[in-house]
Structure formats: C-alpha cells, structure tokens
Design brief:
The protein has 8 helices and 14 strands. The chain has about 375 residues and is of the alpha+beta class. It has 2 domains: about 25-195, Cellobiose dehydrogenase, cytochrome domain (Immunoglobulin-like); about 200-360, Up-down Bundle (Four Helix Bundle (Hemerythrin (Met), subunit A)). Strands 4, 5, 6, 9, 10, 11 and 12 form a 7-stranded antiparallel sheet that branches. A 5-stranded antiparallel sheet has the order 1-2-3-8-7, with no helix packed on it. Strands 13-14 form a two-stranded antiparallel sheet.
Length: about 375
C-alpha cells in the first residue's frame, strides 16, 4: 500500500475515533472498579451515561449493586431507585448520591413521595446496607446491598440526575433523556429492559377538557349574561346562550373530572392534593349551579333577590377557582416552569360590574 494512502487512512480512523463520544464507547463489562470488585451481571442503561452492576444471592435474597454515572458533575445529585408502583420517580425507593458541603461524596436512602425535590433522608420499604458513594475519575458510583422480596425480584428501576444549588436539591431537567430514564430489572435472570417515557396523552386530554370547560365556556357564559342582557333586543336569546354555555361547560367539566379520577387511580404513588381538592370544590359548585337553573324563580318572585345572590356568588367563585386550578394544572404538566410563577388578583363585590381579575407572571 502506498505510504501516502496509509497515512490518509490512519488520519481518517483517528478523526472518526475522536468524533465518537466517549459515552458511546463505554460498556459496563469493560469497566474495572477501584476496589477490584467483580459483578456477575451488568447493564448499559440506555440514557444519561449510566450503568448498573449487581450480584444476586438467592440463598438470602440479597443483591449487591453498583450504580455508575460516567462524566458526573460534582455540582449534581444522582439517584438510582426501585419502584414497584410504576416507571416514574414518584413513589421511588431511592439511593441518592451527591457531594456534600465538604465536597465529599455522600449517599443515603430517600423515599420520593412528592413533586418537591427535597429528597430528605428516610428509610425505604426494604432494607439497605453497605451503602456508600464513591467519586473517581469523573464517575459517581453508588454501592449498596439490597434485601429483596417477591415484588422486588423483578420490578421497575428509575435513575435520574439533577443540579444542586449549594446544599439544596433542585428539580431535574425534563429533556427526553430524563423522561426515558426508566426500565425494568430482573435480579434473578440478570436481565434489564429499557422503558419508555410515560405517555402524557391522558394528562393532555384531561387538561384540554378542563381548560375548555372552566377556562373558556364558563367565563363566556358569564360574559354573555353580564353584557348581552342589557340589550332589549337580545332578550331572551342571551339567557338561552348563557344556559347553553354553562350546560356545555358542566358536561365537558364532568368528562374532565372523570379523566382526572382515572389518572389518579392509574398513578397510586402520585398525588396532587391542591389540584385535586380545588377540582372537587369546582365540581360541587358547578353542580350547585345546575340546581340553581332548576330552582330559578320568576323575576318578580319574592325570593328572586336571594337566588341572584346565590347564583352570582357561586358563579364568580367557580370562575376564580377554575382560573387558579388551570394554572395548577399547568404547573403539573410543566413542573420546571423555568422559574416562572403565575399570580391571580381578584376583586369582588355584590355588584357584578365591579368584578375584575388580572393575570401576571414573572420570574
């Protein structure tokens, strides 16, 4: 082979090797632990440059595990967890590793039961021993011995990483890799299966139904009643339009409420108490408004004044709560929010013309 051709070929190979990310060239089987510990099973986890190693001991149902994150930052936290309730962080029984205020790698157990990334130290539903964290050559490694039971021999695993602000854990990114960091593991057979990011289609359906109901049709019905009824020519058309909007809003709202109940039953480890409680209150108020339509006295009836107070107060309270709950739903769909916060200012008096609301948002 011509010398110049060999030189060109070598240069191409060198360039290709430099272009291949180091994370792609790594495999779990090629790694050697500093303690020379050997594991019979290992898995290259599909995202976040992570690897899992384990030895399963059937005699006492324990597993020695090592979770390794390559290219780890000293300013991040790292979690590996088991979650029998689903492929999600919520409800996870987690092993957490990070660098403490003394810049030393630290590990402890934490049960993740809320959306807040506080991750305080707590016991898990199973026993964990020999837990420690090691940081070497840019790799964060969590070592532990797990006491397994029937439900944990083959279950879901979740791994995750996120930034720290001083000594405070902050929420992880919602990038595709972070959403796909789930899968299953079978300690007995030594197999793992990559999971997929949880579909948000049900959440989207729930959100659209409720946004249309409480955020569009219900306010539109109030606007029609407030501004069209003053025109004589619009009487009684305004009333039928108002009733049609409010009835449609209620029917769609019931569908949205039902999808919310379904989401809750499908996610036993996930609770959004504030959003749920406001939703229940909204449903009760809207039902009261339906009864108000059925019990509506004639304009000259002696109880019409009290009915008006009842109908208007419940209606405006429903609108105020619906706005708050819509933004609560936005928070759930996008928990990162990029530091944005929404506020609602509502002023109310018995005179409908003095009802106003204003939205604002800021960092």
């Amino acid at each position: 082979m011509d010398r110049s051709l060999r030189t060109a070929l070598f240069s191409c190979i060198l360039l290709l090797s430099l272009c291949v990310p180091s994370s792609l060239s790594q495999t779990c089987s090629s790694y050697t632990f500093s303690s020379n510990q050997v594991f019979s099973s290992c898995s290259d986890l599909p995202v976040l440059s992570s690897f899992l190693y384990w030895n399963y001991h059937p005699s006492n149902r324990t597993a020695d595990i090592a979770f390794r994150k390559s290219g780890a930052s000293t300013a991040n936290w790292y979690v590996w967890s088991l979650n029998p309730s689903g492929q999600q962080m919520m409800g996870s029984q987690a092993l957490l590793a990070f660098h403490n205020t003394s810049s030393l790698p630290t590990a402890y157990t934490t049960s993740i039961n809320s959306m807040s990334p506080s991750m305080q130290q707590s016991n898990l539903s199973f026993q964990v021993s020999n837990l420690r964290a090691e940081y070497t050559s840019g790799d964060m490694i969590i070592f532990a011995t797990l006491q397994l039971d029937d439900r944990l021999l083959s279950t879901n695993q979740v791994w995750q990483e996120g930034p720290m602000s001083g000594a405070t854990f902050t929420a992880h990114s919602m990038d595709s890799a972070n959403k796909a960091s789930v899968g299953t593991i079978n300690f007995e057979t030594g197999t793992t299966v990559a999971g997929t990011a949880r579909s948000s289609s049900k959440k989207n359906v729930h959100g659209v139904l409720n946004a249309v109901s409480w955020g569009v049709l219900m306010p539109m019905g109030i606007i029609i009643a407030r501004y069209l009824k003053v025109f004589e020519v619009a009487n009684p058309a305004w009333f039928y339009l108002h009733a049609a909007c409010q009835s449609s809003a209620y029917i769609i709202g019931v569908a949205g409420w039902g999808t919310g109940l379904k989401l809750g039953s499908d996610s036993p480890g996930i609770k959004y108490s504030k959003h749920r409680n406001i939703g229940i209150t909204l449903f009760c108020f809207a039902t009261l408004q339906v009864f108000a339509l059925l019990l509506r006295p004639k304009p000259d009836h002696k109880y019409r004044l009290y009915w008006n107070i009842y109908h208007h107060s419940i209606g405006y309270a429903t609108i105020a709560l619906s706005i708050v709950n819509i933004y609560e739903g936005f928070d759930i769909l996008d928990p990162e929010k990029n530091g944005k916060r929404f506020t609602l200012e509502l002023s109310y008096s018995w005179a409908p013309s003095q009802l106003s609301w204003k939205f604002s948002h800021g960092s």
